[in-house]
Amino acid sequence: MKKGTVIGIVIVLIIALVIGGVFGVMAMRIYMLEEDLEEQTVVSEEAVVQDQTPSVQQPQQPAPQPQQPQTQESEHPWVDVETEVSRIRAIYNDTVADMDRWSVVEEEEGIKLYYNEWDLKCVVFPEGAWGVDYSRWYYYENGQPIFAYYENEDAHRFYIYQGELMRWRYSANAQDAQNAVNVDWGTDGGFQQWENIVLTEARSFGN
């Protein structure tokens, strides 16, 4: 082989190596750029997911006192509420008049139970008993609660019909009983909350 031919082949090989090296470096840089872009995309997607994930908050406890009730239409049209309230008030008046003649059983925390022989007529809770900041009175007919009265700075009167809270009468000022709001057969959360509280405690002593 001629010397010139050999030199030419060598030059071509050198040029090929140089070009190959350049392309190799470029390919490596492109690959690295693609890797960086993929990482940035993943980070961005994670950030978006984190931003879109709703924060979890602990549910708030229900307020110990519901808002002042508003009157609602009766869901028990077959019951004459005013007639039944008048009947309960008559029983209440008779009970109050006769309490001094009945047997009294005193429980812990000053709770008093009034009996006509074996018939429970009234239970009285002093303020603070069982951890409640109200004085409470429960009145019974045939062992079943029919009326309850709660008093602190405000006052609540609960008229009960066949095991259901029929009327909640609320006075913002306990000393002003005439300035009150009635709600009959309520369906909102406040009414139902009071129904559960009153009936649960009243039934602790009734039949």
What secondary-structure arrangement, pairings included, does this model have?
Layout: H1 3-52, H2 81-98, E1 103-106, E2 112-116, E3 119-125, E4 135-141, E5 144-151, E6 155-161, E7 164-171, E8 181-184, H3 189-202
Antiparallel strand pairs: 1-2, 2-3, 3-4, 4-5, 5-6, 6-7, 7-8
Describe it for me?
It is a single chain. It contains three helices and eight strands. It is of the alpha+beta class and 207 residues long. Helices cover 40% and strands 24% of the residues. The protein folds into two domains: 48 residues; 122 residues, Alpha-Beta Complex (Outer Surface Protein A, domain 3). It is globular, with a radius of gyration of 41 Å. The chain has an eight-stranded antiparallel β-sheet, sandwiched between helices.
Short overview:
The chain has 2 domains: 1-48; 81-202, Alpha-Beta Complex (Outer Surface Protein A, domain 3), CATH 3.90.930. The chain has 207 residues and is an alpha+beta fold. It has helices at 3-52, 81-98, 189-202, and strands at residues 103-106, 112-116, 119-125, 135-141, 144-151, 155-161, 164-171, 181-184.
